[in-house]
Amino acid sequence: MTAAAPAPDGVRQHEVVILGAGMSGLCMGIQLKAAGQHDFVILEKQAGLGGTWWDNRYPGAHVDVPAPLYSLSFEPNPRWSRRFAAAPEIQAYMVHCAEKYGLTPHLQFGQAIEEARFDETRGRWVIRTAAGERLEARFFVCSAGPLSQVRWPDIPGLDGLAGQRLHSARWDPAIDLAGRRVGVIGTGSTAAQLIPRVVRQVGPGGQVHVFQRTANWVLPRPDRRYNAVDRLLARWPPYSAATRRFWYQVLEWGRRGFDEGATARRGMLASAERHLRRQVGDPALRDKLRPPYPLGCKRIIYSSDFYPALTQTNVELVTEAIERITPQGIVSADGRERALDVLVCATGFDTEHMLSSLQVTGRGGRTLRQAWAGGPEAWYGSVVAGFPNLFLLLGPNTATGHTSTLLYIEPQVRWAIACMQALARRGGRWLDLRPEVMQAHNQALQQRLQGTVWSACRSWYRASDGRNIALWPGFTAEYQAALARPDLALFEVG
């Protein structure tokens, strides 16, 4: 690692500080080294790398896009064991990438950032960790992403449960579920992955109560295990590249499934209904599992074992609203109390208050919390006006309901590095997106999102005021083209 020596006042100096050692942080580190920049550090609050794949260790956790498209374009992985890779395999792939590309010396674990303040006079970010360490950097890269701050359900009595309580992103594998009474709050994509495993672990001697607020659209998951021939072919670059292109085109076609009247949409609707009828024989249960909103309004679930798990004799799907939690269990709106030994909250993440765990202060003393008082927004999810030399990876409106997030991470990383290089050539200290540029971008973005399927129901895509703060509404190629090269005319350069 090439790093500047500590300043006399004890402040460590770097060119770049990266927050988060998930897939986006690793990609940024790898590409910085490829660009000849070795003076950077990656600060990760957890004890190991992986980001969401370190946090989400619940049973059954896996990626919901084909694995060939969930690897970095420059580092295909021939070692996937199946088409939809499980969390441990993904985390192992990330460890491989870190070791291969020499990131290990740049990684610091157990380092939570509490404050980052931009010094306009010197064009430096001044950063303080929870441990009291101070760092300075010309560029600050936030790669925490939208799925980093867990969201517990806002239910009276949650803290008073006498039994054990788990969040899906804070799983404790030491808790034995065999023969126990388990409640699961949520039936979204995470819940659909963990419920079949929980039902299996509980076994016939236990009971599982699944609390559903709203049903979700479920499509079959075309998963399969890779054999020796598959893995051998995956080592051949032309085959690996062709496989990646194939899945890219398939998922881009799937994007049309969110457009009203599209052939893809009709096909997906028919597939979802056929899947429900084939796997759930009880008409009453089918009615509970049929969503009352358009396909795609919430994130689509891809699962072939979720419905069968709900049909087990020791599994109850509860659709009455939760009224409160008692020390003994959960009381639903009909007055019935279900006793629980373990409560699992598969309630997702707080996307509306992104980066709220740290104090980020830009020009004029304005904080990111103040700038985002009405909900997070950025220019292509990458930069925020008033916060010079700050780059976001997977920032607001860069989530996707149809394809791999890596297809958005890589162009963001390349663009951010190109901006750093352009600033160096200009001889400037900092660059700051012009406010009118960001305002025009987000106005056009929100207008485009209005009237789409993503505005037709309540979901984690939307803030409390109804604005969609999560999704990019277009195709992947459109986003990549927008970040093909930096345009310094969009910035104020200091």
Walk me through the structure:
- The radius of gyration is 23 Å and the shape is globular.
- It has helices spanning 23-34, 52-55, 87-100, 189-202, 228-234, 237-255, 263-279, 283-289, 306-310, 368-371, 406-426, 435-449, 476-482, and strands at 12-19, 40-44, 107-109, 113-119, 124-129, 134-142, 164-167, 181-185, 207-211, 218-219, 301-302, 315-318, 322-325, 329-332, 337-339, 342-345, 359-361, 390-392, 431-433, 491-493.
- β8 (181-185), α4 (189-202) and β9 (207-211) form a beta-alpha-beta unit.
- Helices cover 30% and strands 18% of the residues.
- It folds into two domains: 12-149 and 350-493, FAD/NAD(P)-binding domain; 150-216 and 298-348, FAD/NAD(P)-binding domain.
- It has 494 residues and is an alpha/beta fold.
- It has 13 helices and 20 strands.
- The strands form five sheets. Strands 1, 2, 3, 4, 5, 6, 17 and 18 form an eight-stranded mixed β-sheet that branches.
